[in-house]
Design a protein that fits this description.
113 residues, mainly alpha, 0% strand, ion transport
Length: 113
């Protein structure tokens, strides 16, 4: 008489597994694509903003002191460096978020799936 108990337990287990799989269903690929595009645009804007701020500061100082190309070149390069540093920080934050438990990554491969 233990067989009916086993089949009932098996049925309950299958129902629980199905419920968990439904709750962990992936988002549509389209939403993830737009999310990645937003992060990419954010990084591009950070880079360009650093360049433009450096260019503006250099041009302003050159106009103020009358030394046209010196500060323009120096501050444009500093703006580029600042933009790249900010962009790399954003990329590191994004990578940290993607590798966080329960978000992205390769969780499915741990169980042999």
């Amino acid at each position: 008489m233990s067989e009916p108990d086993d089949s009932e337990r098996l049925r309950q287990l299958e129902a629980r597994i199905a419920k968990l799989r439904d709750s962990k269903a992936k988002r549509p690929h389209q939403e993830e694509h737009y999310s990645q595009a937003q992060h990419a645009w954010r990084m591009v804007i950070e880079l360009v903003a650093g360049l433009l701020i450096g260019f503006g500061m250099g041009y302003g100082l050159d106009s103020l002191f009358g030394t046209m190309p010196v500060f323009l070149v120096v501050f444009t390069l500093l703006g580029l460096a600042a933009g790249i540093k900010t962009m790399m920080r954003s990329a590191a934050d994004l990578a940290k978020d993607m590798n966080a438990p329960g978000r992205g990554g390769d969780e499915g491969t741990k169980d042999g799936d």
